[in-house]
Amino acid sequence: MSLLAKVCGLTTAEDAAFAADQGADLLGFVAHPPSPRHCVDLAVAEAHLDRAVLVSVAERAEDLLEVARRHGFRRVQPYLPAAERECGVALLREAGLFVLLPWPDEPGQAALPADLYLWEASPAQTGVVGGSGQGHGMAFPPPGPFLLAGGLDGASLAPRAAALPPSAGPQLRGFDAASRLESAPGRKDAAKVGAFIAAAHHLEHP
Ligand SMILES: O=C(O)c1ccccc1NCC(=O)[C@H](O)[C@H](O)COP(=O)(O)O
Fold it and tell me: So what EC number does this one have (predicted)?
């Protein structure tokens, strides 16, 4: 079974079209103004709704849902305050959205149900929410199938997959990368994007 490639932090129609043409399975569009990968015009995602993911840092799930509906997103990656997370994720799933739930590599998280988890570096480690370009210790695996993220690019997929804890390997469904695929903050490098997607699709499921 081929593993998935999610290219995250797309900000322009050109970069999104290139990643889609290269065969990216999922395309992430970030709604978080402090990020260099904030997508000012989420309408660019509307040409790719078959694989677009709304990646949003929001205080309330209702706000995220409103943005998702306005643009037609069918998948969301919600970053919600801890107190909102359980109810918010339930609300988004009840609304029929596919939830790719961020799972930072840190202890003590509630095992909320989700369609897929995104195992990424903890903000306590990186100092930022979401994309940081930093890997993590892979010490606290998600409770279900996941995409592995955190400082990945085409060259690092195979060694990182090989270093997964044995219990986590069977749950690996693919990879996500953002900042190490850039030529400048917020813009993707075509060669790096192509190499990442090819490497993900080349790997066999463990
Ligand atoms: O990429 C961002 O700047 C970002 C900002 C706010 C929320 C989420 C964000 N990215 C989410 C992702 O899915 C990243 O691709 C993932 O954490 C890996 O990032 P990177 O280590 O930069 O490859």
Answer: 5.3.1.24
